[in-house]
Design brief:
- By secondary structure, this protein is mostly helical.
- It folds into 2 domains: 359 residues, Up-down Bundle (Na+/H+ antiporter like fold); 113 residues, no CATH class.
- It has 22 helices and no strands.
Amino acid sequence: MLMVSHSLQICILDQAQNYMHQLIIQYAFLLAIILFVVMLAQKIRVAYPILLVIAGLALSFLPVLRNIEIEPELIFVIFLPPLLYEAAWNTSWKDFWKWRRVISSFAFPIVILTSSIVALISQSLIPGFTWALGFLLGGIISPPDAVSASAILKNVKVPKRLTTILEGESLLNDASSLVVFRFALAAVMTGSFVFTKAAGNFVIVIVMGILVGIAVALVFYALHRWLPTTTNIDIILTFLTPYVMYITAEEFGFSGVLAVVSGGLFLSARRDQILTHRSRLQGINVWEAVAFVLNGFVFLLIGLEFPVIIRGLGNEGLLPAIRYSAIICVVLIVTRLASTYGALYFTRFISRYITTADPNPSLKAPLLFGWAGMRGVVSLAAALSIPVALKSGEAFPQRNLILFITFSVILVTLVLQGLTLPALIKWVDMPDPDYTVPFEQQKQMVRKKLSMLSLKILDEKYHDALLHNDMIRSIKIRIEAEMELLRDWEKEENISRSDGFYHDYRIALEDIMAEQRILLKGLNKKEQINDELIREQLELLDLEEEKLRRHFSQRDI
């Protein structure tokens, strides 16, 4: 008996090891595909989420990847908190607050309006579809995806306000749509729905989610601010933060998404108080890489999972499902466009009575804003989290159809709207009403003010040192040369001279840094030279090169 038990344990362990081995190989292969597809997307100047979804569809026909299924817990718990936190961290609080009314109007009323219209259409159109199932579907497909929009807008010139509103709307939309989804799912599972109770709970879930997020953010603020952290500890704490916010809020039955968003915005606005310069530099690089990989996996898995959903419908249910999906896609696009123009006219009306960021918005903005309604990660996560069966043991009604419609909406909006949005932006050709001064001119103005401040400090605080310390004197000489070039740049007749000096300066510095790297690598071959010292000097050169690259980002690099 003991021998049999021991053999069984060995067999189970072997199977587990083989499974883990295959899983690691499979995901390593997917990661390589993601990198290749993103590089291809950059080459052909297409937003990478679009190409990843299409690549996922193509790869789904390979036997080794045919039966990949996404665990909903992975999307909600592993993927969603860091992606939301990274988006909140990169959102400008200044711009977010400036456009708070527009963002909040799209975050709550528009989500409820979209969910209601989808519920009305779906329960009227689809046999066996109840109001609860309609609101469930509406909650799933109502939020747009910030990642897709940001990836597309990076390659085209658009007004800053459009990007800000899209990113802010997406952050809050995710939360409000998931709250609608949660109440609709509860109604389907229990078979009862009381509007007054649901409306009260809706407010509680939102408000308490925000409060939990800020409360957890205060705890991490204290950890960063008053404990002796290192750069590595700071970065690890930033990764723990969104998970603690999300899990804490969800454990109490509140909105984990809103907790992450509110807490992320709170800490982002105070990053200079809680993080050292090295933590900020390294943290940004680490977070960008992690967010890139997570987003890549999600969009690739959307394409890989779609054939699995189709097989779940069967041959008889496929054609009706395609028809329902096409109608709902049109409804979503039209509803969003109508909502954006409705918001425009409401803003013009309400501006007579209250102060607004823009009392007379352009008619072009709603067209671009309305067309930038691609769906993505949150819709995927919500759809996959629908349970297979009810509490009674019966199969969850219309689950496969809801999944199919959701995946169709994601595919259609990403491919159709995502591919045509850059062309629409160029055709509309909307000027930036907020920043009438060109970016390069603003950049020169800021640099001039910084240089003037630096010269003032040197003259007032280090006057004696300037007479005797050559290194401090070299700082003043460099800043004065910078000021002279900035003055040349302001005079049109001297721009070519200034640009020529900048070009020679850049070439000389690049040449010096390249030779310094060769020297450092040569020194590192000697046994008596400490490798850590060489790596530290190479890192300083990297920082100097990054500074140089940013310095000349608007010039002829």
